[in-house]
From TrEMBL, chains A, B:
Organism annotation: Meiothermus granaticius NBRC 107808
Keyword annotations of the record: DNA-binding, Transcription, Transcription regulation
Domain HTH lacI-type: from-to ranges: 7-63
PANTHER family reported in the protein's UniProt record: HTH-TYPE TRANSCRIPTIONAL REGULATOR GALS, LACI-RELATED TRANSCRIPTIONAL REPRESSOR
Database matches in SMART domains: HTH_LACI (SM00354)
UniProt KW Transcription regulation keyword: yes
Segments crossing the lipid bilayer: none
InterPro entries attached to this UniProt entry: HTH_LacI, LacI/GalR-like_sensor, Lambda_DNA-bd_dom_sf, Peripla_BP_I
Any GO MF annotation of the entry: DNA-binding transcription factor activity
Protein name (record): Ribose operon repressor
DNA sequence: TTGAAAGCGCTAACAC
DNA sequence: GTGTTAGCGCTTTCAA
């Protein structure tokens, strides 16, 4: 960068013929300061002419604020393959802007490294934290919450011991996955397979798995571990898991997939085996990613309102940073089942409803 | 945050019984300073015990560095729907970490607001910038480049007037889209439709469109604007565009889609119309998103090496920030055509190769 | 109404 | 080898 572009408040002050204090007062609209209209205009013009933007570090050093929010994606691979996340990123970024914040994207590669985002906090790089899909082996977050650092979780989580201090925007994954499974049971299926969302160290995975199990048992069906395979967010993992589920008969007649991307991969495996969806195997997904209505056949799935989740999370966090305690620490959003064609509940004629 | 967590170098110094200078020297491994092993160990231990992390703002203020890279996604909607971007985000974040940088995610909502990322630069929030899919109506970027601010573009772009100052990791979109179209021509197609990547204000869109046209004309086929529809990154836009293309006969016998997500949507429209892929309409996409091999049928597409692009972009940028001028300002990556089943080039038996 | 001066936490040149 | 000190650019109290 050329020296020319390093404009300081000093230069603005000089150009406007005032002191740096005045510049600061004008630019920050300090309430107490009585600045004449004429001076104010001169300062504003000088700043505009020079393209002055206050140095973020200096401002942050003195104010203690960074105007930056950290977004933690618990597993980096997840980001790469799951189409649910981009919607959230979009919404988070969008809403943060509207509240005057920037978003620092932090992906966590390694479980064992405990300081990954503690460092952001300790180094005072961020004013608050949004954590996506918390893992059950995360030890640092409870610590942060205990110290009252502003944190909002996206996704479902109960922490008995911290209940009223855990701020979250959640959907009831347990109930929703149970409802998805019930839907399949209601269509007459008894051999319903499940491919999990991820390895077992995600809360979301445990909860969805559990919901599936509860629905089976509530209907008097046996929970059969052979019908459960572990996925890994991706279509590739869904494809492989489904192939394994189709290695021996009797085939399952329905699948509840841990997310839509996994469902997509599983559908490819089903198709490759020469089986039809939904006639031979019904499929239900989770998330309602933007491409779900355009799969062949269109995917029946639990809808997670990603954009609204993102918006609410930022609004809540921005409040927490300002010391506003929300009425209820946890916001629960509805997660409706969107019935399309892949579950077989609808007539062919209506199959392509979007 | 409790006061306890606001650990400063002063406290570390006190605990270790040394001065703040010594703490700084030890923690930053300053080469010149001769620190006794014993002192060094004491400082390190004190820092560890207190969980000391230097205040980022203070450090940045004095060093002039932020250790943060800005990532600009030119259109916010794009982020939400295109599965190509997450791969890049992943790679960018991953590589940045390895180089000691953080990633600030900046989405540009509004074309007209000229200061969107100039502000990041002027406020010295970032040390360098990565710009994804530059738009042709972007006026601020040339300015930044002219001033030698470290910028790396991802995607193809020629700027005659700045040629040797534009750093980029690119694929030859013109050649690649031409090659994709040629592939369809080689399979005997003459009515080949194109759904563009986005509205026309992206360079990538113009280039892919142009490559399609060049291939047609090189083969002596007429370029027919009626076979071209504008997409909008998303499956929904691909679906709608394809529906329009199928409104009157003769139908196109092949489609070259501006990206894979659009191809996915278009495939749904084709299927809904009762037509078969590839027998009635062959489809070729662009990007090779992670789900492309799992579409039904698996998608033939141009492969953009997103992860490698991201890695190279960060490496180049990190070099530029340190003043390292790369041998060649533009790195060009190969973009092979991955032939799967959707184009009809392969036998049915091999259709599901992944 | 405006200006002088202190200090946020850190690094690094310069003494000791 | 280690400590003293002067800023980095900004906000903000206090004085004029």
């Amino acid at each position: 960068m050329t020296p020319k572009s390093r404009v300081t408040s000093h230069q603005v002050a000089k150009r406007a013929g005032v002191s740096r204090t005045t510049v600061s007062f004008v630019l920050n609209n300090v309430p107490g300061a009585n600045i004449s209209e004429e001076t104010r205009a001169r300062v504003l013009q000088a700043a505009a002419e020079l393209g002055y933007v206050p140095n973020a570090a200096a401002r942050s050093l003195v104010s203690g604020q960074t105007l930056t929010l950290g977004l933690v994606v618990s597993h980096a691979e997840h980001l790469k393959v799951d189409a649910y996340i981009p919607q959230l990123l979009y919404s988070l970024s969008h809403t943060s802007h509207r509240h005057g914040y920037r978003v620092l994207l932090e992906t966590v590669e390694d479980v064992s490294r405990a300081d990954v985002y503690l460092e952001l906090v300790r180094g005072q790089r961020i004013d608050g934290l949004i954590v996506l899909n918390l893992r059950s082996d995360d030890k640092q977050l409870p610590e942060l919450i205990r110290r009252n650092f502003p944190v909002v979780l996206i996704g479902f989580r109960r922490w008995a011991e911290l209940e009223e201090k855990v701020y979250a925007v959640e959907t009831d994954d347990l109930e929703a996955s149970s409802r998805a499974t019930q839907h399949l049971i209601g269509l007459g299926h008894t051999r319903i397979a499940h491919i999990t969302f991820s390895p077992d160290n995600y809360f979301a995975t445990q909860t969805r798995h559990q919901g599936y199990r509860l629905a089976l048992e509530a209907a008097g069906l046996e929970y059969n571990p052979k019908l459960v395979r572990f996925g890994n967010y991706s279509a590739a993992s869904g494809y492989e898991a489904m192939q394994k589920l189709l290695q021996r008969k009797p085939y399952p007649t329905a699948l509840f997939a841990g997310n839509d991307t996994i469902a997509l991969g599983a559908m490819a495996a089903i198709h490759e085996k020469g089986l039809r969806i939904p006639q031979d195997i019904a499929v239900v997904g989770y998330d309602d990613i933007p491409t779900a209505p355009y799969l062949i056949p269109p995917l029946t799935t639990i809808q997670i309102p990603a954009v609204e989740q993102g918006r609410l999370a930022v609004e809540m966090l921005s409040g927490l940073i300002r010391g506003v305690v929300p009425e209820r620490p946890q916001i629960r959003l509805p997660a409706p089942l969107i019935v399309r064609a892949s579950c077989g509940a609808k007539q062919k004629a209506k199959a392509y409803q979007r």
